[in-house]
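hi! just following up on the protien thing from before. the input was this:
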Amino acid sequence: MSSAKPKPITIPPELDAEMTPAVRAFVKSLLKRIKELEAKVGVNPQNSSLPPSTQHPHAKPAPRKPKSKRKRGGQPGHKKHERTLIPSDQCNDVQPLKPTECRRCGKKLAGSDAKPLRHQVWELPEIKPLVTEFQLHRLECDCCGETTCAELPIGVPQGQSGPRLMAFTGLLMAYYRQSKRRTAEFLSTLLSQPCCPALTVKIQAVVTDALRGSYDELVAELPSQERINADETATKEENKKVWLWTFSAPMFSVFAVRDSREATAVDELLTDKFRGVVMCDRAKMYWRVGRLQWCWAHLVRDFQALIDRGDGQAKRLGYELRRQARRLFEHWANYRGDKISRFAFVRRMAPVRREVERLLLRGVNSGNASLVGMCQELHGHRDWLWMFVRSEGVEPTNNAGERALRHAVIWRKLSFGTQSSGGSRFAETMLTVIETCRQQGRRVFEYLTAAIHSHLAHQPAPSLLPGA
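and the predicted 3d structure came back as:
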């Protein structure tokens, strides 16, 4: 089957002569609409800003690399992987097994083997909740007759859930992406912890309060960062559309749920004190920062769109721009892999930059409607294409921001967003703590438990600031 694109539909001259001006204008509007719809037919995550999750797995193009003829699984000669035996004195139970009689003649056997074969079986312990009862005695004064009741010690929760249980419940909902009903069912059936969905909502509120101080600390630290990866995705709060933003610094990330995708979120979180570089896509709400590095992974998809949907002129320009982008990533990989120095990298990027800007200028002056707009924007803001060459530490892509957002996107798809503003505060706070702990190599469960302990004792949570 031919892959050639159909020729554009035009009004035949003899028909055009018979049309009234109103009919002619109406037909032209329909033809324009047909052209726009045809352009959208070929849109996919490889040539647009659509996220990969919008494309069905069966609709993805076949991989360019031919399928291997080897069978699945370990190949002959591969290194064997097995669990290392722990010392016998660390086992909970050691059962020596001895044969009673010879397997050949049947004679009784006695003695011990100095080096017996060791076989260890790992098993889950029987899970029983640890329940502590506090008996608050009320005593009457012999002098005045007044009764006084004992108070709970500092750090003991008013409810029936302890810090570790609340931390684990928060992780089940935010980290392991379980619904409140599934979380309650897991706690009840597997951990023997009586729980219902309403209790998980109460725990969610306590966890949010415990972590909010640490969250606010990170928000206040954002404007002082030299490099930030920024991204956003749509989600829902109750029945309205909201936006989940992420601002990822080298050692911590901040998530925020806001009502719109406007630049107000950028102004609020980065403030006018920010003097660093933002790595992002070409969304215009970031332009006000003034120091950007546009993501070259997004640009490659834009160039692919010219190849897939453009005419011959746009197709040629798309191929040439994509070729330069591949040279860029080749030089970047050599630099990141310590194969070339920073000086050599900057020197090799100079001809790439000149050629890309020449191609963009060619598109600006082409008179082709499918080229002029994009090329004019890129050439007009060409400094934002090369910040990673001028500033060490800046990367040419926004991969770090997209990786930080990936967990949140999967959670959103499973949960369909939140049902209240309290749920949104829990989501943004927990996502911030989870991603920051990952970046810093911290154990998120231990941190959550410590933060809730501090909250119950009316103390501030441990700081998540780098170096704290």
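The mean pLDDT is 89.
The longest helix spans residues 197-221.
cheers
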